Amino acid sequence: MAIVPDAGEPLSPQAADLVRRIARVFLDEPADLMDQVQAAVSAAADEPLRSEPTLAAEVAASTRANVLHWAAGILADPGGRVPANLSPEVLGIAREAFRRGIEQTVYTTYHAGQNVVWAYWMRTAFSLSSDPAVLRQALEAGSRSVSAFVDDMVAALSEQLRRERAELARGSHARRFEVVSLILESAPITTARASSQLGYDLRRRHTAAVLWTDPRHPDQAVLAQAADALGPATRARQVLTVIASSSSVWAWLAAAADTGTSAITAAIAQHPAVRVAAGPAGPGIGGFRRSHFDAVATQRLMARRPDLRVARFADVQLVALALADEQRAREFVARTLGPLADAEAELRDTLCVYIGEQFSAARAARVLYTHRNTILNRLQRAERLLPLPLAGHGLDVGVALEIAQWLGTQPGSATRDR
Predict the structure, then answer these.
(1) CA atoms of 50 and 66, how far apart (whole Å)
(2) Any residues with CB less than 8 A from the CB of 350 and at least 6 apart, and which?
(3) CA 335 centroid distance within chain
């Protein structure tokens, strides 16, 4: 039975089958497809959608959701029109672009993604069939479908944001976000005026925090609860919170007495999906600004460590500086650690703790809950793999081990592959 695509000729059974086979390739989420689409969308996006970690992650989640939604739709109905996808991750980043006055970037990124998807569709079609008639129909169906989907998405998002325009502009979080943005941009707004508009005393010392969840499952209620819990946990005099995106909140703690990792971890203990990056305390409106930027830098670094729920800039600033030039950092790690860079993680972890405990095997054993003799055995094995003796090179080795913990792949591989 022929399948009639929207505004096109009937699809033959063979062409419909090819369309479904191509769609299944897309649904397998091939890495090269997703990488290419994400790169094109990111390049077409305005700032800060490219550089701010949470926003970049939300753009990526929205892009992935749309590609999979479209592929599932054309798989189910090769000749039909795939309905628009207004899922939370898609609406969330569109709202954020609107709230920041860069809604046009949404439409630009959709067309950038469309071009990549269409090119991948063509390559996949030619890899799966050599029948000219079948290929022609499958290519036409794919082109028509992805083009119509993007047009429908742009129209649906425009209509949704038009309906929400007044609410987005009037909300208290929108007003706070506007004032905070002026502060972060070093706009000429006085401390007194900003404090009055925020209801937050900017003359105090401030510790900034960024709280976020998986952009594929945004939950502002949970984020708000976690942000509120930071106040009593850190014994802050005041807490200012601003919705930064659908999956993140910015917070500032005024005159907090305890901003250690333990206090922050305790505050979010009831919210396992929430992660927190904290900046250092700083006085006045300048400290408010600097602490936030350091918290964002920490958050960006935490993208390398999905296992890490809480981090402070004070604890990672050395690594942040080192990874500003990742290739040089990898070369330093490979050169300093030698074969140890690719050895079992247990050896590197033990040596890292040993150095952190001022080269005390006894203290390292207590930290690792391991017998001292076991620690000594691991240390001997680790030292045999180092290019230079640990004595006299402990600082370099310690820094290299710390950096290695944050690198996403085996730390020495990038250098040796070149």
Answers:
(1) 18
(2) 364, 368, 370, 375, 378, 379, 382
(3) 30
Per DSSP, the three-state class of 283 is strand
Both tokens assigned to 105: 């970037």
Spatial separation of the C-alpha atoms in residues 204 and 253, rounded to whole Å: 9
- Report which of 222, 266, 404, 379 is spatially closest to residue 322, judged by C-alpha positions: 404
Task: Transcribe 79-126 into DSSP letters.
Answer: TSPPPP---HHHHHHHHHHHHTT-THHHHHHHHHHHHHHHHHHHHHHH
Q: Specify whether the CB–CB gap between 288 and 208 falls below 8 A.
A: yes
Rounded CA separation 153/144 (Å): 14
How do 238-245 and 282-283 pair as beta strands? Answer: unpaired
Q: Residue count of the chain, please give it.
A: 418
Quote the Cα angle for 355-359-365, to 5°.
90
Per-position pLDDT tens, the chain of length 418 = 344 445 556 899 999 999 999 999 999 999 999 999 999 999 999 888 888 898 899 999 999 999 999 999 999 999 899 999 999 889 888 888 887 777 788 889 999 999 999 999 999 999 999 999 999 999 999 999 999 999 999 999 888 877 776 665 556 777 888 899 999 999 999 999 999 989 999 999 999 999 999 988 888 889 999 999 999 999 999 999 998 888 999 999 999 999 999 999 999 999 999 999 999 999 999 999 999 999 999 999 998 888 899 999 999 998 988 888 889 999 999 999 999 988 888 999 999 999 989 899 999 999 999 999 999 999 999 999 999 988 889 889 989 998 988 886 444 443 333 2
In the numeric block, the tokens 């996403």 are attached to: 408
For residue 182, give every residue at least 6 positions away whose Cβ sits within 8 Å of its Cβ, in sequence order, or none.
189, 194
SS3 content of the chain, % helix, strand, coil (to 5): 65, 10, 25
Q: d(Cα 7, Cα 261) in Å, to the nearest integer?
A: 59
Q: What is the pairing mode between strands 310-312 and 238-245?
A: unpaired
- Contact of 273 with 238, CB cutoff 8 Å: no
End-to-end CA distance of the chain: 55
Q: What 3-state class would DSSP assign to 156?
A: helix
H or E, element range at 296: helix 284-302
- Rounded to whole angstroms, what are the CA distances from 262 to 64, 185, 215, 310, 415? 35, 32, 25, 9, 37
